[in-house]
């Protein structure tokens, strides 16, 4: 599929979480009363399609879509056709932010950089004017051919890398226009889910929602886990920090938890060639229980079989965090829960509830 050009300056979003920051125009000045009363709901269909097609070695047809992630910063789009096969290209108009550039490097060594522009961003049917769009002019190979057109970052503003002056993130700019300054993730296993801005859809979860304080000093949605258990085994005390990240696929936890889990999976082994824990694809996987905010949250065993790996084995959705300074609660975890990213409290907080329709007794 050849790259296509966007025909307008609007950036239509399908979703991700991350951060950014500078004197944005009055937040919400052009937002209608319906949004202020009811919020915005968005489908995560493209998000799931991208993951599925990456696994299958194929790419879906895409138009004006962004990839939503919780630990990156700003609205990033591609303007270089040579660097972005199978993706739409952002058309630059006369709206550069004077002398402003940006650059980011991720934990895996991937990177992107470019110039900053002011443009409108559309969430659902609502357009927010004068938002900062980071146009990617240089990207690492890992971003090439991935299918997404860009990233909508919803983490905290201190992660922003725009120079010479940091800018406000999209969420910081639109939060005052929402009924409540939070967004929710209701992602699904092998199905389309939703991201909702500003309100709780009570059909998506089972009460109660349990909240845990967030340490946002590093820019991430960082929180503490205090214990874990595998299957029907006893609970083990284990306090560790992790970040909630819709932009990471796997659940990445301390190595002793990973070892304890896979000790209960017949034939499981750490496979250096595949880069992680693998097991027989017909293995019966136990549930993983994690204590967060004083309550136990369960990832059913079926969610922890990620994908086929080389050699006929399957690659685990739970992997160990040997080379990074914190754990990552990626989509393997998030798809088994209903997650609230709440910036309306001090400190911010994360809310977790059972996702409607998920069998947490598995």
UniProtKB/TrEMBL annotation:
GO terms for molecular function: aspartic-type endopeptidase activity. It comes from the Eukaryota. Keywords: Aspartyl protease, Hydrolase, Protease. Residues 53-353 form the Peptidase A1 domain. GO terms for biological process: proteolysis. Belongs to the peptidase A1 family. This is Aspartic protease SNP2. It comes from Lasiodiplodia theobromae.
């Amino acid at each position: 599929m050849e790259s296509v050009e966007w025909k307008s300056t609007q950036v239509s979003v399908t979703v991700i979480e991350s951060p950014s920051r500078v004197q944005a125009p009055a937040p919400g000045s052009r937002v209608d009363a319906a949004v202020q009363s009811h919020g915005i709901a968005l489908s995560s269909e493209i998000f799931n399609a991208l993951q599925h097609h990456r696994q299958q070695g194929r790419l879906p047809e895409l138009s004006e879509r962004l990839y939503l992630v919780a630990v990156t910063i700003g609205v990033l789009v591609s303007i270089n056709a040579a660097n972005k096969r199978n993706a739409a290209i952002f058309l630059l108009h006369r709206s550069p932010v004077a002398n402003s550039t940006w650059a980011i490097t991720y934990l895996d060594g991937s990177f992107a950089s470019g110039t900053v522009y002011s443009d409108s961003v559309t969430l659902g049917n609502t357009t927010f004017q004068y938002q900062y769009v980071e146009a990617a002019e240089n990207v690492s190979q890992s971003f090439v051919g991935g299918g997404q057109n860009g990233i909508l970052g919803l983490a905290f503003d201190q992660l922003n890398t725009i120079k010479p002056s940091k800018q406000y993130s999209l969420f910081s700019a639109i939060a005052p226009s929402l009924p409540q300054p939070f967004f929710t993730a209701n992602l699904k296993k092998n199905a389309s889910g939703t991201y909702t801005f500003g309100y709780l859809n009570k059909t998506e979860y089972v009460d109660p929602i349990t909240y845990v304080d967030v340490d946002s000093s590093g820019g991430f949605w960082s929180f503490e886990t205090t214990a874990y258990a595998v299957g029907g085994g006893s609970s083990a005390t284990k306090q560790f920090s992790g970040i909630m990240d819709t932009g990471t696929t796997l659940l990445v936890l301390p190595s002793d938890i990973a070892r304890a889990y896979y000790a209960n999976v017949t034939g499981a082994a750490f496979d250096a060639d595949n880069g992680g824990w693998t097991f027989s694809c017909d293995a019966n996987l136990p549930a993983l229980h994690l204590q967060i905010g004083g309550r136990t949250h369960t990832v059913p065993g079926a969610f922890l079989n990620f994908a086929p790996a080389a050699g006929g084995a399957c690659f685990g959705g739970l992997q160990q965090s040997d080379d990074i300074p914190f754990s990552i609660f990626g989509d393997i975890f998030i798809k088994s829960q209903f997650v609230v990213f709440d910036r309306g409290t001090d400190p911010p907080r994360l809310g977790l509830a059972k996702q409607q329709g998920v069998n947490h007794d598995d």
